Amino acid sequence: MPDIASREFDVKRAAFAATIGNMLEFYDFITYSFFATEIGHTFFPAQSEYGSLMLSLATFGAGFLTRPIGGIVLGIFSDRVGRRPAMLLSFALMGGAILTIALTPSYAAIGIVAPVVVILARMVQGFALGGEVGPTTAYLIEIAAPRNRGLVVAWQPASQEIAATVGALVGVILSSTMAPDMLQAYGWRVAFLLGAVCLPFGIWMRRTLPETVSHGEHVAGQVESSSHLALARRHLRVIVLAVMILASGTISTYVTQYMTTYAKNTLHVSPSLAFTVSLVSNGLQIIGAVLGGWLADRLGRKPIMIWPQLVVLVLTYPAFLWIVRDPGAWSLLFGFGILSFIGSLPFTAFYAAFTEALPQNIRGGVFATIYAVAIATFGGTAQLVVTWLLHVTGDPLAPSWYLLLAAAVGIVAMSLMPETAPVKTGEK
């Protein structure tokens, strides 16, 4: 096995192998939100369009219920057994769930069994994804040289955005080449199966990863018992702030992913334009995530967290006002694109800061658990909350209210996070 301490391995290849698995898992998880309307019609027939969509989104939310369990189980597993076994297990579970959803017959064909199977598959997906992010982020921090940690860790959120971009691209192609009835009948299944085709490659890539957790030696980050109390207090503060920041980022991410459905159902634009907006927005978030990591290595974690978040807070309502008043291609692409790009900058810096603040022997488990709890609480409900707000108020600006609240909470917590960047702390 390659020696992590002496860097006798290709960091770029290892980072790619870790994050391509992460990307494939997020592709299938996010694809569900893109095709929420079509999946609702397939598995959750209801008396109204609103009822069918809400049942579909509730099933999307079911995947978040098991995320904390997956975060705890697979996160601790990664700390005790290793990062690579945990990442392989989460990937295999996700693959089985993907195939199950893609191949389950409709409600019209097998009745109540169809939604039950889909809900169970979503719960398995949630368990797998809950245990994915913590070990992967810990792994990226551990293979990176201190001066490049932000940039290497940037591929965690960037891989998620790559997944969303590919999902949106698939949506654009399918919605442009298929009639609406074909898209509803089986087009969304094609999108899922395209992700499943990549599963063997992802498993092979992850099997080649070098391990970063050594159980025969003193684990970096452990401390003497006399300092446990002070360390616990410090970590508790960081963990609380991390939950607040993750809540902010999660709401922003999942409301953004919901914009495909929002554009189709609320603004009544064509499906192809709706998917194009998601494609452009997610593509810009890839650039923003990588740029955020690069800047965080050079300027510090906190400046890259705080200033872009402040800009998002200022621009969110005007951008939505423009989009709602003139829901054309230019306003949608530019408005959502700018918010997506600027909003993606702070969270790479946060990923690096939070992971660096945790000792290695608890890093995977704590990050996975906190991430999964925040995602389950706020990500699993974000799209339901937005749909409900739109329904009860009838105001197409309702998503901006939720985003503003999330951005405000995020900037307060970011301003209180400790600075961990080697360029600021002097670590080499």
Short précis:
Helix content is 81%, strand content 0%.
The coarse silhouette is: globular
CATH topology: Growth Hormone, Chain: A
- At the fourth CATH level, what is the homologous superfamily? MFS general substrate transporter like domains
**Number of E-state strands:** 0
Q: Can you summarize the main beta sheet?
A: none
Q: Can you tell me the CATH architecture? A: Up-down Bundle
**Pairing-aware structural class of the strands and helices?**
mainly alpha
Strand content: under 5%
Helix content class: over 70%
Distance between the ends: 25 Å
What is the N-to-C succession of helices and strands? HHHHHHHHHHHHHHHHHHHH
> What is the count of DSSP helices, taking H or I runs of 4+ residues?
20
pLDDT averaged residue by residue: 83
Which oligomeric form is depicted? single chain
Which class in CATH terms? Answer: Mainly Alpha
Pfam family, one: MFS_1
GO molecular function, one term: symporter activity
Organism: Bradyrhizobium macuxiense
Protein name: Putative MFS family arabinose efflux permease
Model description:
This protein is mainly α. The chain has one domain: Growth Hormone, Chain: A, CATH 1.20.1250.20. The chain is built from 20 helices and no strands. Helix 1 (about 10-35) runs antiparallel to helix 8 (about 135-145) and helix 1 (about 10-35) runs antiparallel to helix 12 (about 200-205). The longest helix has about 35 residues, at about 360-395. The model is unreliable at about 215-230 (pLDDT under 50). It comes from Bradyrhizobium macuxiense. Pfam families: MFS_1. Belongs to the major facilitator superfamily. Metabolite:H+ Symporter (MHS) family (TC 2.A.1.6) family.
